[in-house]
Amino acid sequence: MVKNAIFLFFVLLFVGCEKKEAPQLNIIPRPLKYWVSSNTMKFDQNTRIIYEDPNPALRLMAEDLAHQIENHTSFTPDVIALSMAKSIGNDITLTANLSDSAYGNEGYLMQHNGMKFLSIQANSAKGVFYGIQSFLQLLSPPGGEKPDEIVLPAIYIEDRPRFIYRGMHLDVGRHFFPVSFVKQYIDLMALYKFNTLHWHLTEDQGWRIEIKKYPRLTEVGAWRDKTIVGHQSDRDKLFDNVRYGGFYTQEEIREVVDYASLRNITIIPEIEMPGHSLAALSAYPEMGCTGGPYKVSGEWGVFEDVYCTKEQTFTFLEDILTEVIGLFPGTYIHIGGDEVPKTRWKNCPSCQKRMKSEKIKTEEQLQSYFVRRIEKFLASHNRHLIGWDEILEGGIAPEATIMSWRGISGGIEAAQMGHDVIMTPGNYCYFDHYQGDPELEPLAIGGLTKVSDVYAYEPIPEELSSNRARYILGAQGNVWTEYLAKPQDITYMVLPRMAALSEVVWSPKEKRDWKSFYKKLPYHFSLYEAMGLTYSQSVNNLCFRIKEDENKINMVSIESEIPDAVIHFTTNDSMPGIGSKKWTTSLPVSQIHTIHAAAFVDGKQIGKVFTKTVSK
């Protein structure tokens, strides 16, 4: 009754608001519910940020919010404890005393009281943090002359996430990125309310985490003699022959973990095993089946050499994981488990002996044995194992969580068996794919995953009953870095696809709307520019695609992500206009040499003219 009365009060208060939820806010991800009034709320040099005490987390958030407001305005709000505030004026209050189970551990309530102050309330400091992220997106992007006051529409927001796992991944094995960029990546995640960073720390191409008991892992395994230039699929492979590498000290790891924790992000480290292990084997060749020699790879792909299943190897890996557990306080440890060729095991006397002693019939079952042993070790240290969906092969470990990347079938199978699942299928969640016409985009691994594809993704498969759907914890965007060597390469590939995924995992399914989301993007593009970030605008570009139809005839299609767009085109030397032909279907390649096309909305051209020359 109390909650309903409060709700009715704000509906009546916001008399200038339409009966439906409008107008649109620029907040991404979209809140669960919001109302905007014709009234305004103003903040100026007299504004304070008042936090509930004693709560050190809220104090830190208040101080950070004051700094953020300073970036936007000519003033810096004072920060004061609630117990010290004799009165409340046009202030911002942060409290974690909501005591309403409807908001869970991460939800929040933001409301202007109809007089002066704005409150952000939650059941926990974590919820307050997410409320602050929404508030910051109400402000104009920083830059230019700083105003003396902030004037915003009075607002009421009820918000909470749809999924408990909202993840982004970062591969630092193929290419290494400094601590400063990892922190920047974490800041972007926090902006969009992600709560988990999957940090891919070891690979065939480099070992990136200091392990004190095995110093050669970084002395040798963190460096390669060369890196492939161009695409892995190129017929004539070229290499730069430049020594490349790097690693994080344990002190740096702790620094990043602490930084993420302040932003309510848990880091899951990934230590790849039994495959993708060439960097480690190069440092300690006795852990492989052949004894080497091995080399840290300078090209991409899947390699035959993997960890041996002899006892020495398990001791080695347990020692490594012991140090990893000491650095990462989160529940989960990711062990990879993907793309494990079995050739070495089939020809290895130690592995075959292991199979005989354990009554294992196939090498797939040997992989399951490997994973189960590691899971048992992690469980003894109060940690939970995550693996890619290949660990289903040969029998899944009893308590393992599955990360489903090869489509959704692995996730469905694991959920049907009662295992927790994180969905990350390549067609929707691989942000190393092209996001527009490859001729207009930087070199990428392949594929095409447009912003609208990410936005359209539904993490819960239709095949699952409601009883089994509960095992889907959420979804994750993956960033593999074979072709991403610099920080600006990463930000170009994740922005704005990260924003699109954030709405998938946070916002209610029934309230997601592509047209509404698209209208928010100009604000977020301005935000990226103010932050000095490289980002993609491919969502505004036309995409030409050539596909075979059912008659094996190559057909040209033109796709646009712009809502309500009409494509006009020409096939001569003239530029398209509103009077040119409308593109309505695919055309045979044989009928086309050069196409000029542009998108129009309400008769006005959106963006530039795009040209495609087709080879017969």
Overview of the structural elements:
With 616 residues, this protein is an alpha/beta fold. It folds into three domains: 2-159, Chitobiase, domain 2; 165-535, TIM Barrel (Alpha-Beta Barrel), CATH 3.20.20.80; 542-613. It is built from 18 helices and 28 strands. It has an eight-stranded parallel barrel with strand order 8-9-16-17-18-19-20-21, surrounded by five helices. The protein has a seven-stranded mixed β-sheet with strand order 1-7-5-6-4-2-3, sandwiched between helices. Strands 25-24-27-28 form a four-stranded antiparallel β-sheet, with no helix packed on it. α2 (56-72) packs parallel to α3. The longest helix has 18 residues, at 363-380. The chain is globular. The chain starts with a helix and ends with a strand.
Number of domains: 3
* Gross geometry: globular
Strand content: 15-25%
Q: What fold name stands as the CATH topology of the largest domain?
A: TIM Barrel
Largest sheet composition: 8 strands, parallel, barrel
Fourth-level CATH superfamily of the largest domain: Glycosidases
* Strand line-up across the major sheet: 8-9-16-17-18-19-20-21
Q: How large is the count of helical segments? A: 18
Which percent range fits the helix content? 25-40%
| Rg (CA only) | 27 Å
Distance between the termini: 70 Å
Low-confidence blocks of residues: 1-21
The CATH architecture category of the largest domain equals Alpha-Beta Barrel
Q: Give average pLDDT, whole number.
A: 94
CATH class wording of the largest domain: Alpha Beta
DSSP summary, beta strand count: 28
Structural class computed from helices and strand pairing: alpha/beta
